[in-house]
Design goal:
Layout lengths: L4 H56 L11 H11 L3 E7 L5 E4 L17 E8 L5 E9 L2 H51 L11 H30 L2
Antiparallel strand pairs: 1-2, 1-4, 3-4
Helix pairs in contact: 1-2, 1-3, 3-4
Length: 236
């Protein structure tokens, strides 16, 4: 489908604005989803850490030191087994030394050092006197989060490409029809003003009427000008 220079001039800005608007919409929606999901994940992880803290502080309230909490290893292993994206859970004593910790097989590739971008959530351990006697540290991999966002981004990008293609197609069709109508209107005006002009296939009646009126007014003006010239030429 050949396009005239006028069609390109009209279509290009519309297409550019459509592409920018759709692209900006996708970018903002993905960013908002990413932030919302990250906030939900952090809230869930804090709930897990607080649940572990309450469990361990039951033993601390009895006067036991962190190293003597017999249920600590089983508790953190159970929580780690519930979510494969938990990289590690570490229970530290008052000096900050790890006392209990979870570990994953090396083949899993999810060791704490293998995922530097993991989310870290922690809480302090206190006894019944309010003294801090240790801490819990949970590291969570962002791999699942990033894969989910990437999948959503791919689907939104595909939808954006389809929307852009449809927008461009509709713009081309509408612009082509509009330019053709302008061409018919100009052709009708040209035909009405010039008797030697080629006939228009589908003349525009409104344009033809306007051209006839312009032609009539121009004729009257020429007649008035001719009479004024003769009057000036015949004056003594």
């Amino acid at each position: 489908m050949a396009m005239s220079r006028l069609s390109v001039t009209i279509t290009a800005p519309i297409v550019l604005i459509s592409v920018l608007a759709i692209g900006l919409t996708v970018f903002l929606n993905v960013g908002k989803l990413d932030r919302t999901l990250a906030e939900l994940e952090e809230s869930r992880l804090r709930y897990t850490v607080n649940a572990l803290r309450q469990n361990l502080e039951t033993g601390l309230d009895l006067g036991l030191p962190v190293r003597s909490l017999g249920n600590a290893q089983a508790a953190i292993d159970f929580e780690a087994s519930q979510d494969p994206d938990i990289v590690s859970i570490v229970v530290r004593d008052e000096a900050g030394q790890p006392v209990f910790h979870t570990s994953r097989p090396a083949a899993d590739g999810r060791g704490a050092d293998a995922d530097p971008d993991s989310i870290k959530v922690g809480a302090t351990l206190s006894n019944n006197l309010g003294a801090e006697v240790g801490a819990i540290e949970l590291r969570y991999s962002r791999r699942g989060h990033d894969e989910f966002i990437a999948g959503i981004s791919a689907h939104l990008l595909l939808a954006a490409l389809v929307a852009t293609a449809v927008s461009i197609l509709l713009t081309l069709v509408v612009t082509r029809q509009w330019v053709r109508r302008i061409g018919r209107t100009l052709g009708s005006i040209e035909h009405a003003l010039d008797d030697n002009a080629p006939a228009v296939e589908k003349p525009d009646r409104h344009a033809a009427a306007l051209a006839e009126e312009v032609k009539h007014s121009a004729g009257k003006a020429m007649d008035e000008l001719d009479r004024a010239r003769r009057a000036v030429g015949g004056a003594p």
